[in-house]
Amino acid sequence: MPSQSARPPSTFRRSALTMAAFGIGVGLVFPPFAHWVLETDAAYEPVFWVLCVAAGLVVGAANFAIAFGVVGKHVQRLADAMYKVNERVAHADATSAECGEACRLPITSSDSFGRVEQAFNDIFAGRLRPRASAGKTSTSRSTRPSALRVGPPPERPRRRTW
Fold first, then answer.
1. Which domain holds residue 54?
2. How many domains are there within the chain?
3. Residue 159 belongs to a domain
4. What is the mean pLDDT of each run of 10 residues along the chain (162 residues)?
5. Given this model, what pLDDT does residue 48 score?
6. The 3-state secondary structure of the chain, one letter per residue
7. Domain assignment of residue 2, yes or no
8. CA 108, CA 103: separation in Å to the nearest integer?
9. Euclidean distance between CA atoms 35 and 111, whole angstroms
Protein backbone atom coordinates (compact mmCIF):
# COMPACT_ATOMS: atom_id res chain seq x y z
CA MET A 1 0.00 0.00 0.00
CA PRO A 2 1.40 3.45 -0.89
CA SER A 3 2.48 5.66 1.96
CA GLN A 4 0.41 8.64 3.01
CA SER A 5 3.14 11.05 1.87
CA ALA A 6 3.35 9.65 -1.68
CA ARG A 7 1.71 12.03 -4.14
CA PRO A 8 -0.43 10.59 -6.91
CA PRO A 9 0.83 11.16 -10.45
CA SER A 10 -0.12 14.42 -12.12
CA THR A 11 -2.72 14.05 -14.84
CA PHE A 12 -1.49 17.20 -16.57
CA ARG A 13 2.13 16.02 -16.48
CA ARG A 14 1.09 12.72 -18.06
CA SER A 15 -0.91 14.64 -20.68
CA ALA A 16 2.10 16.83 -21.49
CA LEU A 17 4.34 13.79 -21.90
CA THR A 18 1.75 12.01 -24.04
CA MET A 19 1.30 15.03 -26.29
CA ALA A 20 5.08 15.47 -26.61
CA ALA A 21 5.45 11.79 -27.53
CA PHE A 22 2.67 12.13 -30.07
CA GLY A 23 4.39 15.19 -31.55
CA ILE A 24 7.68 13.29 -31.84
CA GLY A 25 5.83 10.38 -33.47
CA VAL A 26 4.22 12.67 -36.02
CA GLY A 27 7.60 14.29 -36.69
CA LEU A 28 9.16 10.87 -37.31
CA VAL A 29 6.36 9.67 -39.58
CA PHE A 30 6.17 12.84 -41.66
CA PRO A 31 9.46 12.52 -43.65
CA PRO A 32 8.56 9.09 -45.16
CA PHE A 33 5.08 10.42 -45.88
CA ALA A 34 6.57 13.52 -47.55
CA HIS A 35 8.91 11.28 -49.58
CA TRP A 36 5.95 9.17 -50.72
CA VAL A 37 3.74 12.18 -51.62
CA LEU A 38 6.38 14.53 -53.02
CA GLU A 39 8.59 11.82 -54.50
CA THR A 40 11.78 13.58 -53.45
CA ASP A 41 14.81 12.32 -51.59
CA ALA A 42 15.07 15.68 -49.81
CA ALA A 43 12.51 14.33 -47.34
CA TYR A 44 15.23 12.07 -45.90
CA GLU A 45 17.72 14.87 -45.26
CA PRO A 46 18.71 15.08 -41.56
CA VAL A 47 17.70 18.74 -41.39
CA PHE A 48 14.20 17.88 -42.63
CA TRP A 49 13.89 15.11 -39.99
CA VAL A 50 14.97 17.50 -37.21
CA LEU A 51 12.57 20.20 -38.40
CA CYS A 52 9.69 17.70 -38.57
CA VAL A 53 10.34 16.45 -35.04
CA ALA A 54 10.68 20.04 -33.78
CA ALA A 55 7.41 20.98 -35.48
CA GLY A 56 5.75 17.94 -33.90
CA LEU A 57 6.98 19.03 -30.46
CA VAL A 58 5.69 22.56 -31.04
CA VAL A 59 2.28 21.21 -32.05
CA GLY A 60 2.27 18.90 -29.00
CA ALA A 61 3.16 21.82 -26.71
CA ALA A 62 0.46 24.01 -28.27
CA ASN A 63 -2.05 21.18 -27.83
CA PHE A 64 -1.10 20.85 -24.18
CA ALA A 65 -1.34 24.62 -23.62
CA ILE A 66 -4.82 24.72 -25.14
CA ALA A 67 -6.02 21.66 -23.21
CA PHE A 68 -4.51 22.94 -19.96
CA GLY A 69 -6.07 26.35 -20.50
CA VAL A 70 -9.52 24.94 -21.16
CA VAL A 71 -9.67 21.85 -18.96
CA GLY A 72 -7.28 23.00 -16.24
CA LYS A 73 -9.21 26.20 -15.66
CA HIS A 74 -12.50 24.30 -15.37
CA VAL A 75 -11.02 21.68 -13.04
CA GLN A 76 -9.55 24.39 -10.80
CA ARG A 77 -12.88 26.25 -10.70
CA LEU A 78 -14.65 23.00 -9.83
CA ALA A 79 -12.15 22.16 -7.07
CA ASP A 80 -12.40 25.68 -5.62
CA ALA A 81 -16.20 25.47 -5.60
CA MET A 82 -16.10 22.06 -3.89
CA TYR A 83 -13.81 23.40 -1.15
CA LYS A 84 -16.11 26.40 -0.63
CA VAL A 85 -19.14 24.12 -0.33
CA ASN A 86 -17.22 21.91 2.10
CA GLU A 87 -16.38 24.96 4.23
CA ARG A 88 -20.04 26.10 4.18
CA VAL A 89 -21.20 22.61 5.19
CA ALA A 90 -18.66 22.52 8.03
CA HIS A 91 -19.82 25.95 9.21
CA ALA A 92 -23.49 24.92 8.97
CA ASP A 93 -22.69 21.73 10.85
CA ALA A 94 -20.78 23.57 13.59
CA THR A 95 -23.57 26.10 14.09
CA SER A 96 -26.45 23.66 13.50
CA ALA A 97 -27.64 26.01 10.79
CA GLU A 98 -29.34 24.98 7.58
CA CYS A 99 -27.15 25.00 4.51
CA GLY A 100 -29.66 25.05 1.64
CA GLU A 101 -28.58 26.35 -1.75
CA ALA A 102 -25.28 27.67 -0.35
CA CYS A 103 -24.18 24.04 -0.09
CA ARG A 104 -24.72 23.27 -3.75
CA LEU A 105 -22.47 23.67 -6.75
CA PRO A 106 -23.87 25.53 -9.72
CA ILE A 107 -24.21 23.25 -12.74
CA THR A 108 -22.12 25.05 -15.35
CA SER A 109 -21.97 22.57 -18.22
CA SER A 110 -23.75 19.63 -19.79
CA ASP A 111 -20.65 17.43 -20.17
CA SER A 112 -18.66 15.32 -17.71
CA PHE A 113 -17.93 18.37 -15.55
CA GLY A 114 -21.64 19.04 -15.21
CA ARG A 115 -22.21 15.41 -14.23
CA VAL A 116 -19.50 15.69 -11.56
CA GLU A 117 -21.14 18.88 -10.24
CA GLN A 118 -24.54 17.16 -10.17
CA ALA A 119 -23.14 14.05 -8.45
CA PHE A 120 -21.48 16.25 -5.81
CA ASN A 121 -24.81 18.00 -5.21
CA ASP A 122 -26.65 14.67 -5.06
CA ILE A 123 -24.25 13.38 -2.40
CA PHE A 124 -24.95 16.36 -0.17
CA ALA A 125 -28.67 16.37 -0.99
CA GLY A 126 -28.90 12.80 0.28
CA ARG A 127 -27.16 13.80 3.52
CA LEU A 128 -29.15 16.98 3.99
CA ARG A 129 -32.55 15.35 3.42
CA PRO A 130 -34.10 13.90 6.60
CA ARG A 131 -34.46 10.14 6.40
CA ALA A 132 -37.69 8.31 7.15
CA SER A 133 -37.21 5.57 9.73
CA ALA A 134 -40.12 3.32 10.76
CA GLY A 135 -42.64 5.91 9.63
CA LYS A 136 -40.88 8.73 11.48
CA THR A 137 -38.75 11.45 10.01
CA SER A 138 -35.28 11.45 11.46
CA THR A 139 -33.32 14.66 11.76
CA SER A 140 -30.56 13.12 13.82
CA ARG A 141 -26.98 14.25 13.67
CA SER A 142 -26.13 11.36 11.30
CA THR A 143 -28.08 13.05 8.50
CA ARG A 144 -25.87 16.12 8.70
CA PRO A 145 -23.30 16.65 5.93
CA SER A 146 -20.43 16.10 8.37
CA ALA A 147 -21.22 12.39 8.25
CA LEU A 148 -19.36 12.45 4.93
CA ARG A 149 -16.11 13.49 6.62
CA VAL A 150 -13.96 12.15 9.37
CA GLY A 151 -12.46 15.00 11.33
CA PRO A 152 -12.21 18.65 10.28
CA PRO A 153 -12.49 19.74 6.67
CA PRO A 154 -9.30 19.06 4.73
CA GLU A 155 -6.79 21.84 4.32
CA ARG A 156 -6.99 23.46 0.91
CA PRO A 157 -4.04 22.42 -1.23
CA ARG A 158 -1.79 24.99 -2.81
CA ARG A 159 -2.67 25.90 -6.37
CA ARG A 160 -0.44 24.06 -8.78
CA THR A 161 -0.13 24.81 -12.42
CA TRP A 162 0.90 21.27 -13.38
1. 11-148
2. 1
3. no
4. 67 87 92 91 91 93 89 85 82 74 80 84 67 43 44 54 54
5. 93
6. CCCCCCCCCCHHHHHHHHHHHHHHHHHHHHHHHHHHHHCCHHHHCHHHHHHHHHHHHHHHHHHHHHHHHHHHHHHHHHHHHHHHHHHHHHHHHHHCCCCHHHHCCCCCCCCHHHHHHHHHHHHHHHHHCCEEECCEEECCHHHCHHHHCCCCCCCCCCCCCC
7. no
8. 15
9. 42
Q: Is 157 a member of any domain?
A: no
In a domain, residue 115? The reply is yes
Give Rg (Cα) of the chain: 25
Looking at residue 70, what is its pLDDT? Answer: 85
**138, 132 contact by CB (below 8 A):** yes
| pLDDT score for 86 | 80
